[in-house]
Amino acid sequence: AAIEAVIGKAPEAAGIAAEPYPISSAIAKAELTSGYAATGVRLLHYGDENARYEAFLKVDDQLQISDVVAFSGTTGAPVPATAPGLEKQTVAEVVLNALVALHYATYGGIWLKVLYIGLGLALCVMVGTGLMVWVERRANGPTGRLARSTYLLMGRFNTGCMMGLPVATALVFYADRLIQVAADARITMIGSVYLGTWCVVALMGTIVRNPRWWFRVTLGLSGALAMGILPLDALTLGEGSLFDSAQSLALAFDLGLALLGSLALVVALNLEGFAVKPLPARGSGPLQAVVQAQER
User: Fold this and answer.
1) CB 197 within 8 A of CB 175
2) Extended strands (E) in 6-131
């Protein structure tokens, strides 16, 4: 009901067969009149007298997710894409479209997406290391008011939460390809796999007494899963090929995951070689206590 109130009710089929207007011609007309490239088209009641085509345009220079141009599915004449009286966007629609464009970085080109990735990774590193420093200072320093074992438990839970995210993210690709469910239950299935995996890894990280070992296990598992997404897609794509031109974006994405996965696997297997050894302390005092805590 809310969707109908905002964008109008979809036209009903007349039940009378009619010669369809060529879809390619409708898309070409939409691109010509708007100046934007079409990313897709929705067909309503194809082959019916009340058929309608809705072309979605890639508006990458404005803060909106897309623009819609509608045509009659029998004559190709332009028709309103929204209900009468709703041709002008409301303030809520403008804000929503802007937020969606900001969230998915649909504007500004590929380099803005690269910047988004860098900023997102930097934020993850800042939050993760900040939590680690907070726990370490209270577990091994004078600022903690709780038992040291409590802070160590917090640290293990923190490690489990952080490392559960990449494992869950990689596993979602396998669930999407291998678990067959009805279309209306697909989002629920993916969400359950993601949240369930995250919770299991976080709880296991709390139970395992050696967070360094658990970090190596989860990092290696994340890397192995990421590397397996490329062959998974190639084997489950169906009749098409991952090397077709239409799949170039998916292939580039899978290759990027394979590269990140291989790096994660290398780090996991050689983590002891990357460890920073504490300097030998001289004398006694606070520095000696910190070094002894680190060694323990």
Assistant:
1) no
2) 38-44, 52-57, 67-72, 78-79
